[in-house]
Recover the amino acids of this structure.
C-alpha cells in the first residue's frame, strides 16, 4: 500500500517555521546552505542585486553570497543573515579570547606560575585564542607529552602561593585514566581541569573546520589517524592539525567546555 504524507499542501505553499535573524558580524563563521561553503564573514555590501555577504574559508578563498532568507547554517542551525546595524556604536577592540584588547600593552615578565597542557597541539590552540591575554598576564604555557607522570611533574615544579600550577587534561571524564591521575594531585596550589574529548582536536567546532561532525573512531585505533581516514584526509596528522588550527579565529570556534577550563586556569595562576 502506498503511504502518503499527512500534509498534502504543495511544498511551495507550506508555511515555513521562522528562523532567527543574525547580524553578519565580521568573523562570524557560517555555512551557506546550497553550496556547503563554510567561512568567516569578511564584509557585507549593498549591491544593485541586493545585500551580499563575503565569506572567507580556512584556505583564504572568498565567496560572495546574497543575504537570502534561511540561507545559512550557524552551528548547524538554519538562520537568516542580516546586515549589521550601521548605527550601532563600535565596541572596544577585543582579543581572540573575547577579552578587551589593551592597545600598546607590553608583555609582562613571566610569572613563576605555569600552565601545563598535554601536547603541542593543545599548546598551539591555547596560544591561538589566549596568546594576547597570556602575554599581558605573564603566563607561560608548556606541554608535557602526556600526564602519566603528573604527580612527579608536580613535585618537581614545587608549586606554592607565588608559583601556582594549572594543568589542562584531555579526556577528563569519570572513570578514565586521566581522571584517576588528576585525582591523585591534591596540592592546594595546583589546579587540574580538562575537557571531555579524547583529543583537543574535538574541542574545535566542526563547522569551523568545514565538516559536519567529528567521526567516531573505533577503540583500539589511533584516534587522529582514524579521524583523517574517516574524513578522507591524507593520513598526515601534522597537516591535518594545521588544517584544523587554521579554522580557529577566536573563542567562538571552540567548545564551551574547553573555554571554561582554560579561563579557570588563567584565573587560578594569576590570582593574587
Amino acid at each position: 500500500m502506498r503511504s502518503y504524507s499527512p500534509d498534502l499542501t504543495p511544498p511551495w505553499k507550506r508555511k515555513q517555521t521562522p528562523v532567527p535573524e543574525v547580524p553578519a558580524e565580521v568573523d562570524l563563521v557560517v555555512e551557506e546552505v546550497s553550496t556547503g561553503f563554510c567561512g568567516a564573514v569578511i564584509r557585507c555590501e549593498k549591491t544593485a542585486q541586493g545585500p551580499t555577504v563575503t565569506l572567507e574559508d580556512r584556505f583564504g578563498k572568498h565567496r560572495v553570497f546574497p543575504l537570502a532568507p534561511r540561507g545559512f547554517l550557524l552551528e548547524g542551525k538554519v538562520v537568516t543573515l542580516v546586515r549589521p546595524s550601521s548605527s550601532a556604536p563600535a565596541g572596544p577592540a577585543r582579543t581572540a579570547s573575547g577579552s578587551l584588547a589593551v592597545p600598546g600593552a607590553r608583555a609582562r615578565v613571566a610569572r613563576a606560575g605555569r600552565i601545563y597542557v598535554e601536547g603541542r597541539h593543545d599548546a598551539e590552540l591555547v596560544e591561538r585564542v589566549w596568546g594576547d591575554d597570556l602575554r599581558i598576564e605573564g603566563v607561560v604555557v608548556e606541554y608535557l607529552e602526556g600526564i602519566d607522570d603528573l604527580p612527579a611533574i608536580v613535585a618537581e615544579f614545587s608549586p606554592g602561593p607565588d608559583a601556582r600550577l594549572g594543568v589542562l587534561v584531555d579526556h577528563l571524564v569519570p572513570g578514565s585514566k586521566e581522571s584517576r591521575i588528576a585525582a591523585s594531585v591534591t596540592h592546594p596550589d595546583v589546579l587540574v581541569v580538562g575537557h571531555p574529548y579524547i583529543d583537543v582536536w574535538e574541542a574545535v567546532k566542526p563547522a569551523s573546520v568545514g565538516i559536519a561532525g567529528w567521526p567516531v573512531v573505533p577503540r583500539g585505533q589511533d584516534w587522529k589517524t582514524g579521524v583523517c581516514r574517516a574524513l578522507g584526509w591524507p593520513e598526515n596528522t601534522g597537516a591535518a592539525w594545521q588544517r584544523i588550527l587554521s579554522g580557529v579565529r577566536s573563542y567562538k570556534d571552540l567548545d564551551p567546555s574547553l573555554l571554561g577550563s582554560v579561563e579557570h586556569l588563567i584565573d587560578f595562576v594569576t590570582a593574587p
Notes: Helices lie at 120-137, 150-157, 177-183, 206-209, 223-231, 237-245, 256-270.
